[in-house]
Amino acid sequence: MRIAVISDIHGNLNALRRVLDDIESQRAEDIVCLGDTVGYGPEPEECLSLVRERGISMVMGNHEQALADPAFLDGFNPHAREALRHTATFLSADSLDYIRQLPRFIVRHGARFVHGLPPESVGIYLFQADTRKLRGIFEAARERICFVGHTHELLLVWYDGERATKDELRPGLNPVVPSYRYIVNVGSVGQPRDGDNRAKYVIWNRKAHTVELRRVEYDYKDTAAKIIARGFDKRYAERLY
Ligand SMILES: [Fe+2]
Predict the structure, then answer these.
(1) From ligand 1's centre to the CA of 152, what distance in Å?
(2) 172 CA → ligand 1 middle, Å
């Protein structure tokens, strides 16, 4: 079974559409979204609608969390906070209701899906956990593999029963050892920060024991123009280049 995992779309509809096309061409049987579908980008409502229309299961990201409960806005820098307030003006009441009921994590196909850090943190980044802390997380984990977003970067963390090791998540197929445990940081569809501006997502092949990192070209110039046209800070347009 092939499961596509997407994350951090951030209102970038051009990137989301191209990634969904790519997923279709790869014949994935299920898609899970790790949150932050909104925030920074120009088409938050359109992205949420498309995710829901396609029946994609989604966990809560820190951007959704701050829209659901403004107390969480304190955790954002002033620019991101302003972008979120602006994002809220584009969202329908129905989308806000949907955001409020999002789960903190999903367990499916024997895997765990969470925005920040397992078992269920929306806001803690994977890089905040050192290998000692990660070892504790792996030992407490019920699932063999967990997928996270939030950093917009790529990382493969594995645990062989003795130590946790942070490794590169390479483009193409990354083999996973069936007896090991893993945390996969899947990168970002809509606002990559891994030094390559293509949209990123992964396909987990349960049977073949691989995690495939896919990089998808999209019209980032058009997204950048929409960010400015819709009144968002131009820093979020520049970040796409
Ligand atoms: Fe994000």
Answers:
(1) 6
(2) 23
pLDDT for 144: 97
CA of 23 to the centre of ligand 1 (A): 21
Q: How far is the CA of 55 from the centre of ligand 1 (A)?
A: 21
User: Ligand 1 centroid to 82 CA: how many Å?
Assistant: 15
Interval between CA 96 and ligand 1 midpoint (Å): 18
First vs last Cα of the chain: how many Å apart? 34
Residue 2's alpha-carbon distances to 206, 208, 212, in angstroms, are 7, 9, 10
**Cα–ligand 1 centroid distance for 36 (angstroms):** 5
Q: Tens of pLDDT along 148-171? A: 999 999 999 999 999 999 999 999
Superfamily of domain 2-238: Metallo-dependent phosphatases (3.60.21.10)
Q: From ligand 1's centre to the CA of 179, what distance in Å?
A: 31
Could you read off the pLDDT of 61-91 as tens digits, one per residue?
999 999 999 999 998 999 999 999 999 999 9
- Give CA–CA dist 74/220, Å, rounded: 30
- Report the pLDDT value the prediction gives residue 87, as an integer from 0 to 100: 98
Residue 111 banded pLDDT, cuts 50, 70, 90:
very high
Helices (H), the chain: 13-25, 44-53, 62-68, 78-88, 93-100, 131-140, 220-229, 235-238
